[in-house]
Every structure is written in structure tokens, then in C-alpha cells.
Amino acid sequence: VVVSGGGEALLNRELPVVLARARELGLRVHLYTTGFHLDPDRCELLDEVARLTRVRFSIHSPQTRTYDQITGLPARLHGLARVERHIEALVKRRDQLGTDLEIGIGFVAQAANVAQVGEMADFAARLGIDSLDIRKDEVDVTDALTHTQIETLRAQVRRLRRQAMSGDLRPLEVDLGDELVALANGEAPGRSRTSECLAKYFRPAVSPYGIVGALGKKIEIGRDEAE
After folding, report:
1. β-sheet bridge partners, residue 160
2. Cβ neighbours of residue 92 under 8 Å, at least 6 residues apart?
3. Nearest of 38, 62, 40 to residue 127 by alpha carbon
């Protein structure tokens, strides 16, 4: 069972009950989350998350300013520092319970963080993360990368791949998305898509912080609808 999508799952106060029931049924559960609401003081929630099969945190920058820029959080909330504390608490609780939880980080390379791939690997290793999943923005929600940014990304991915193959990053495992593999190999992957996003007709979007809005930045709506 994958708990993800439609907003931030940790906003659901009944989530500990849901996770416990899934565990009782013998199901493997993967949770995708920003980690912003994984409050260590919510002991029931922390314990259930620590008993999952896998948790992947969406963290798109190891730098506070860039993290705030990408998430849209005000600096006064100290979002990145808060998520770090929550991950550290989860790692500690996992070790106390002796569970097999795998903790990962998902990182989407985009214009704002394109020079931070290597730094992200260091960040993950420092937190005791098991796996780092690095992807390029494959749905074109963010600004397109310039030629210089693409070359910057290519150089970092190649360096990171060499480190992974030589074992320098162990025990951290790094997984690269298909487009990044192609990029590192000197290829320019091509994609095609329809001219209109049809999801707007059947799916609203809720941000990880509880804000309801249209699905994605690419949806075009009229002035009256926007108002």
C-alpha cells in the first residue's frame, strides 16, 4: 500500500489507525511525505511510521533558503530544520524499536536546486538516510533548465555515479531517474505530451501544507475561473 498523493498524508489525524490496520493485515506500506508534520510528540504516529516498510521524504534542497523557495514556506517556520529534526527522531525511534524501516529522500532536480545534487547526497548521508532517489522534473512543472544548468546537472550526476559505483557513498544507496541516466550518458531524452492537462476536470490538488488549488502550474484557466 502506497500512502501518497492528493495532499500530505500526515495531515490526516486518523493516519496512525490506518497504518496500524494495514500492519495488522500483513501489508507492506510505503509512505511519501514532506515530513513537515511528523511531530515527534505525536508518539502514536511516530511509532506507526517507524514500523512501516519504507518512508520517502520529499526534500528538494539541503539549503534553507532554496528549500523555502521551492516549498513556498515562510522563513519564520524554519521548514528544513524542522524536517531534519523529524527525520532524526524517526531514525532514533526505528533503532529503538529494531524495525526494518527503510528511510529515503526524494529529490527533484530543477532550476532552483540544480547545483545542489552532490550536497544533497552529503545531507542524506549525514542524516543516516538509507536511499536517495534523484529525478529530473519529468512533468515540466518547474522552469525549464538552461543549457548551462543542464551541463551543471550532468557533471554532478556523473560525479555522483562514480562515487556510488566506487562505494564511497555506502551505506547510502543512490537511484537516478531515467532522464538523468540519459543525461549522464550524453543523451538528450525527448518526450511528447498532449496540449491540455485533462486532470483539471476530475482532480483538484491539495498542497502538502493543506492549501487547495488547481492541479499544477501548467493548467490554463480563464480570468473569471481564477477569481
Report:
1. none
2. none
3. 62
Angle, CA of 11, 28 and 41, to the nearest 5°? 35
Strands 205-206 and 173-176: unpaired
Nearest to 105 by CA among 62, 43, 41, 155: 62
Cβ atoms of 70 and 60 within 8 Å: the answer is: yes
Dist. CA 216–CA 213, nearest whole Å: 9
Which of 47, 21, 15, 51 minimizes the C-alpha distance to 33?
15
At 127, the amino acid letter reads L
Q: What are the average pLDDT values for consecutive 10-residue runs of the chain, which has 227 residues?
A: 85 93 95 95 95 96 96 94 97 97 96 95 94 88 88 93 89 91 82 68 66 54 43
> Which residue shows C-alpha cell 488547481?
214
SS3 state at 217? coil
